[in-house]
Amino acid sequence: MWMMPPVDYIEPLFRPPSEAHSLILQVTNGCSWNKCVYCEMYTAPQKKFKPKADAEILAEIQRCGEELPNTRRVFLADGDAMALSFRRLKSTLEAIKEHLPMVTRVTAYCLPRNVKKKTVEELAELQALGLSMVYVGVETGDDELLALIDKGETYQSTYDALVKLQAAGIKRSVMVINGLGGQALSKQHAQQTARLINATQPEYLASLVLFFSKGDQRYKEAFEGRFEEMSDIQLFREMQQFIRALELKKTIFRSDHASNLLVLKGVLGTDKSHLLAQLENAISGASSVFLRHSSDRSL
Questions:
Q1: Contact, 200 vs 166, CB < 8 A?
Q2: What is the pLDDT along the chain (299 residues), one digit of tens a residue?
Q3: Cα–Cα distance between 191 and 195 in angstroms, integer?
Q4: CA-CA distances (angstroms) from residue 150 to 128, 140, 153, 206?
Q5: Angle in degrees, CA 27, 29, 35, rounded to 5
Q6: Residues 182, 230: contact at Cβ < 8 Å?
Q7: DSSP 18
Q8: Rounded Cα gap, residues 183 and 229, in angstroms
Q9: DSSP characters for 86-109?
């Protein structure tokens, strides 16, 4: 039976799909950067970035220990939990160990800039205390596109963060966005993102498709008229180009977000040829549908 955790949330609350059954501890509200032009997650007035007070976090962990003692997984929300100092993250993880001893995995979203402020030794200590994985929104490895979307990162800053996390023993779940650069920047987006992923060999890689529930005006304004939305076939071809350029050893790949028209799952590189075949079939199928519809319209 599901129970509402004894935690005070400021909604809307966001978490990765894989954390559906985790206890969500909202240690920060919103995102400290919150300038990315594609992101609609923290735009509500009540989502202005603010860390939760230490005493409140510790009290909530203690209550969760009393009411949900069998908790196995914890996700530290919101979008920027790793913005907290090493000291504060350490005290949070120590409290989880004390009051929720059954927990085997603690995860959080992580911006590359959050990692820059912490040493490998500090990150390794957090890992030893239970921080086993972080979700890093890489989005793209292309510097031109990173600047256009106001990500506040570069290829190099993202590379440095991913390498540092690996050195500390923290697993990395990297997210990229299909269609992020539109038609004009599709090729360089696929190539440079693959270059970054190859250089860092993350344990997990996920892809979603660019989408806007509140309209795309803000996004198009950032591109000053250069952005042209991609068709389904073009999105499949960009993903095909991206996967073809990947040279990975044992990265678990998922493209199963609600935004994805085609669900792809596998291990790269052992399943690379199979994934490329799925994409080729999708392109052929979508092309057939397009030609059929075009023929119908001409009658």
A1: yes
A2: 457 899 999 999 989 989 999 999 999 999 999 999 999 899 899 999 999 999 999 999 999 999 999 999 999 999 889 999 999 999 999 999 999 999 999 999 999 999 998 999 999 999 999 999 999 999 999 999 999 999 999 999 999 999 999 999 999 999 999 999 999 999 999 999 999 999 999 999 999 999 888 888 999 999 998 999 999 999 999 999 999 999 999 999 999 887 888 999 999 989 999 999 999 999 998 765 443 343 343 33
A3: 6
A4: 34, 12, 8, 21
A5: 130
A6: yes
A7: G
A8: 7
A9: HHHHHHHHHHHHHH-TT--EEEEE
Task: Identify which of 120, 124, 38, 30 has the alpha carbon closest to the alpha carbon of residue 80.
Answer: 30
The three-class DSSP label of residue 84 is coil
Amino acid type, 35: K
**E strand or H helix that includes residue 132:** strand 131-139
Sheet holding 264-268, edge to edge: 23-26, 73-77, 105-110, 131-139, 171-178, 204-209, 251-255, 264-268
Q: Residue 128 corresponds to which amino acid? A: A
Q: Quick check: pTM over 0.85? A: yes
Query: How far is the C-alpha of 97 from the C-alpha of 106, rounded, in Å?
Result: 10
| Residue 19 identity | E
